[in-house]
Design goal:
This protein is an alpha+beta fold. The protein folds into four domains: 117 residues, Immunoglobulin-like (Sandwich); 91 residues, Immunoglobulins (Immunoglobulin-like); 106 residues, Immunoglobulin-like, CATH 2.60.40; 151 residues, 3-Layer(aba) Sandwich (Rossmann fold), CATH 3.40.50. It contains 13 helices and 29 strands. The strands form seven sheets. It has a five-stranded mixed β-sheet. Strands 9-15-14-11-12 form a five-stranded mixed β-sheet. Strands 17-24-23-19-20 form a five-stranded mixed β-sheet. Helix 9 links the parallel strand 27 and strand 28. The termini are far apart. Bound molecules: 2-acetamido-2-deoxy-beta-D-glucopyranose (6 copies). The site of one 2-acetamido-2-deoxy-beta-D-glucopyranose has 5 residues, from strand 15. One 2-acetamido-2-deoxy-beta-D-glucopyranose (NAG) binds next to loops.
Length: 536
């Protein structure tokens, strides 16, 4: 029982393999009732078995072998015409609706057609039989009638008598050629081909939907918009600099990037020089920003290139160099002012700190000092007074002081115990000495070789009166005196004159600061200068 079912199936399979027969969708054809339609049997392997006779069969309301069963007259009557591989239905009607097949020889596979005859213009029919076409303003445009379902040219007795065009909803004829098509030329057109057969005219109508598109824009070129040309960018060393290269592109494959001396700049933003990439506000605007985190001297030596690489045109470039910004004028000006102030301040500081050394240097080596011709005989009146405390200079120190002043530094001194002539009134003699001296030097002493402390007030008055300078020598012990422990006259004198402190043994050397100070406050020795200087 099983074998009985299996056998036919195997046979069918075998048959299929041998003949290549397998179910196949028929080719669909659409025609309006009253129109002509032609079916063309294709020459494909499987349908064409060499010299076998071509057989057309209709599988409409009645099965019919259109080739062998019918005579030409019968064909005429049915309104069909078979010639070679063509089957022409001259005047389609609902009777022609159905399937058709063609095959060559009994063994060959059949090729199927499904003919659909419409009596009314249905939407489906319109869709299946409307052919689209596109033209652009303001170009020329020729409507072409589709070559579908038309009879082969070699069929005897059928002659074509031209094609006419209508625009839909317009009964008048139109030309199929537009020298310069306009947008309102768009719409649905029908073309009617007419064929003459045995004195009868048969029509074939097709529909063409013309779409008129606006003028094609000229193709835009991608370009770098900024910087416009090779540029030199002034930068400050050490500053962060960002240079934007902007481009307009029209393809998603266009790219903008930076080169540094011919090699690619990285996009890695951890490196000192990199570029990053943004798509601008418009979709076709590209920005590649070259970033220098800290401009170095080496960066100034390199050449930078912004490159726009396009798929449809040659690449474009812009060349960039960096230069150091010139310092603005106000920076130099303020720098100058600062330098001037610094020089001034340091000059003042140096002068204040070293004024004694400088003055003595100028006086000793260059002989620069004020020369007075005041008719005075002495450079200084060295006056000792008995100090109230034990803080005065002892006799040896006093003698040393006098001898260094006279012998080492050539001061001419008026000394009370030497130069004041005895026999005169003491007060008068002291005042005379003051008058003959340019400076009075008050020396506290532990003994009392001078006129005594009682004369101090007299001297003070004389100094004020005669405008004579006073140098007040103190000892380290007198320095700690409280004001008030000094006598009133001494107090006044110490305030009126310049003070120099005798520091005992350390002040003995003529190069000690005691001597420098003392000489600074004293005028230059007049005798010495007369000897040393060239006569004027
Ligand atoms: C086509 O057939 C229709 C009806 O069958 C008829 O009215 C018409 O005249 C025929 N057309 C031609 C050209 O024979
Ligand atoms: C035509 O063939 C299709 C299958 O291809 C079938 O469904 C349809 O019934 C056939 N029509 C006629 C009229 O034979
Ligand atoms: C083809 O079929 C016809 C009948 O349809 C028959 O008379 C003829 O012998 C067949 N030819 C072959 C080669 O089978
Ligand atoms: C064929 O088309 C022409 C032109 O449109 C028309 O005059 C004629 O009547 C049509 N013939 C038939 C049979 O439809
Ligand atoms: C590019 O890098 C710079 C510097 O790091 C930054 O300021 C800028 O926002 C970056 N731009 C983009 C689009 O990442
Ligand atoms: C940079 O370009 C200038 C001229 O454009 C060229 O003379 C110079 O050699 C270039 N420098 C480098 C490092 O390529």
């Amino acid at each position: 029982m099983k074998g009985a079912i299996l056998l036919p199936s195997l046979l069918l399979l075998l048959l299929t393999l041998l003949t290549g027969v397998c179910p196949r969708r028929p080719e669909e054809k659409y025609v309006r009732a009253g129109e002509m339609v032609a079916l063309q049997c294709p020459r494909y392997r499987g349908y064409d078995h060499g010299d076998g006779r071509l057989i057309w069969a209709s599988h409409t309301t009645q099965e019919k072998d259109l080739t062998s069963d019918m005579s030409s007259a019968e064909q005429m009557e049915m309104g069909v015409l078979v010639h070679g591989r063509s089957l022409v239905i001259l005047n389609a009607s609902v009777n022609h609706h159905g399937n058709y097949s063609c095959s060559q020889g009994n063994a060959s596979r059949k090729y199927w057609f499904k003919l659909m005859v419409y009596t009314t213009r249905t939407r489906e029919y319109e869709e299946k039989t409307t052919y689209p076409m596109t033209c652009n303003t303001p170009e020329s445009c020729t409507l072409t009638c589709p070559d579908v379902n038309i009879p082969a040219e070699n069929i005897p007795d059928i002659t074509t008598s031209g094609t006419i065009w209508h625009k839909k909803a317009d009964s008048s004829l139109t030309a199929s050629y537009f020298s310069s098509v306009k947008e309102n030329d768009g719409g649905v057109y029908t073309c009617t081909r007419s064929y003459l057969y045995h004195g009868q005219i048969y029509n074939m109508t097709s529909t063409v939907k013309l779409e008129v598109q606006p003028e094609k824009k000229p193709k835009k070129l991608a370009e770098i918009t900024s910087p416009r040309m090779s540029e030199v960018f002034p930068v400050d060393l050490g500053s962060t600099v960002m240079i934007d290269c902007q481009a307009v592109a029209y393809s998603e494959f266009d790219e903008v990037f930076w080169l540094m001396d011919g090699s690619f700049v990285t996009r890695d933003n951890s490196s000192p020089v990199f570029y990053n990439f943004t798509q601008g506000p418009g979709k076709n605007k590209l920005i590649a920003s070259l970033v220098f985190k800290k401009v170095s001297k080496e960066d100034l030596l390199k050449n930078y290139t912004c490159m726009l690489q396009c798929e449809s045109q040659p690449s474009s470039y812009v060349f960039i160099n960096l230069v150091q910004k010139p310092r603005p004028a106000y920076v130099s000006l303020s720098l100058g002012i600062v330098c001037f102030v610094v020089v001034m301040v340091s000059t003042v500081v140096i002068y204040v700190k070293f004024k004694i050394n400088i003055t003595l240097f100028l006086r000793d080596t260059l002989g620069c000092h004020r020369r007075t011709s005041d008719g005075k005989s002495y450079d200084a009146f060295l006056m000792c007074y008995k100090s109230d405390t034990d803080a005065g200079l002892n006799d040896d120190d006093r003698k040393w002081l006098e001898s260094v002043m006279e012998e080492k530094f050539s001061y001419s001194l008026c000394l009370f115990d030497r130069d004041v002539l005895p026999g005169r009134a003491v007060q008068e003699a002291v005042l005379d000495c003051v008058q003959q001296s340019r400076t009075v030097v008050l020396v506290p002493s532990s003994s009392d070789p001078g006129p005594g402390a009682g004369f101090l007030s007299v001297i003070h008055e004389a100094l004020v009166e005669r405008q004579t300078d006073l140098v007040f020598i103190r000892t380290e012990a007198t320095e700690v005196w409280r004001s008030g422990s000094l006598s009133e006259a001494l107090q006044l004198l110490s305030e009126a004159g310049d003070c120099v402190t005798w520091k005992g043994v350390s002040s003995m050397s003529p190069s000690s600061s005691f001597w420098k100070q003392l000489r600074y406050y004293l005028p230059a020795p007049q005798n010495a200068s007369k000897i040393r200087l060239l006569p004027k």
